[in-house]
Amino acid sequence: MQSVADEKHDTASINRSPVIDARRLVKRFGGITAVAGISLVLQQGEMIGLIGPNGAGKTTLFNLIAGSLKPSSGEIWISGREVSQERPELRIARGVGRTFQIPRPFAEMTVLENVLTGAQEQDGERLFANFFNPGRVAGQERAAIDKARSLLSFVTLSGLENEPARVLSGGQRKLLELARILMADPAAILLDEPAAGVNPALLETIMERVLELHAQGKSILLIEHNMDMISRLCSRVMAMASGRHLAEGTPDEVATNPAVIEAYLGGAA
Amino acid sequence: MILDLLAYGAFFLTMALTYAIMCLGLNVQWGQTGLFNVGIAGFVAIGAYASALLTTPETAGRIGGFGLPIAAGWFGGALVAGVVAYLIGALTIRLRADYLAIATFGVAVAVQLCVLNLEALTGGAFGIGFIPRPFAELAGNPLAFGLSNAGLLIAVVALLYMALEHLVRSPWGRVLRAIREDEAAAQALGKNPTRFRLQAFTIGGAIMGLAGAAQAHFIGFIAPDNYMPILTFQVWAMLIVGGSGNNRGAILGAVLVWGIWASSAAAVSTFFAPEQQARAASLQIVMIGVGLCLILLLRPRGILGEVRNVSRHIRKIMKSDDAELASRFLSKD
Q: For residue A61, what are the domain limits?
């Protein structure tokens, strides 16, 4: 894969702007401030975990970075470009792909078609090219199918490629979403609770695949409740509570931080 | 007798196929994209009037009358309706389904009122007559005339069907399905829902305009009364009966519902005294309504439901993989 090699080269080069640089992000919903001035930097090839109790604002922060929500104030820079007010469908072209907390496969489409939908810059998605340049469309589609099949084998879903996505289990859907965004070759991947509701055997597969992607040089931002998974995957963790930055450091430092423990146990302690 | 029946059959089929074209247009908008267009009559009217103005001879007291060939009129009708659909879509396509329905209904009423009142352009309530009919030179022989027209419409519907199926099975059609299934997920993959919806709305509108043009030339006369909301209702009934999301269903539904409509008209004129017939004609609408209810109760997805469409490029692979897949399933147990 050409792009992976490029990214490794990029990682080596000095003085590159971070893949994701979120600055003092604020998001208000009416009277509620879900994210209250969070800054976060994801460097090339880095894997960061984002933890926090329910309602901490993790998913809101995630949606801001992924573009599906626009910040009330603050800025988001992706690879040196300000993108705070851009429409969500432009994020993938900027190199940021996301998965959803509750997977959103295209249920009635086949598994293979789901992955093909992730392909970028396809002439066949332009109306008239289908009539005036069918040869080119067919050629691109063949290449896309080859790539989609290799991604499906990467996420261990090869045997299901012609099944409609609705037959997949929760964990398989998460793997399908991963393959779907990988089709677009994003430099950074945002994973929203990849372990939630996944059976242990499949969880192991998901973790292996995330580690493999990290080894290939992808930058990864991971929301997760599963501390075991976080400590196995991430070298740096950021904890949030009530929309604010709480602690940052290695997984062990954050897990033993009194403020973090207090936030998780909250009133119960 | 048989020749008469055949001539009527050809006439019936030609009319039914003009509705089939409208229904194919609606299927692109609703069946494939989920756009709730309740203004079909407006787009059909625009196509009909545009084509009539382009092809009729010059007339005193009316603007237009360019005397162009019929083909130019049909193309022009589709083009004008497509442009209008694009402009309306650009304003309204971001609306939620129910609001889009209200907006398009308003557009259709506005179009009908414009057609009724812009007398200098449209002839007002009297409409436009002497629209050139295809194969007019055969008019002396009803059978030959009817069959030629039916043949022409069959060719148009077949071409349109093939082009639309080509699109359904293309990457473009795949993005349309993805957006319909989950807009947020499609956006996360870089697809712009507004752009694709607007394209589908425009294509659908242009097809409806083509249908209006074809119908106007077959009847030879158009008036604002032809484009009342009942037309929109009929086309919706056709698509629901035939099977929304399925192009073959759209064509089948148009022929069936037009059959119910025509035969109930015949029944009304047979069983009711002449002075009752105007009122009894409402029973035609009742018949369509009853048919619609039956379909929704018995086969909610229509006679031919939506089939799972896969890009033609994938289908090739699926065929060659069948044997391999089968062996894998067998070895699993």
A: 2-105+186-268
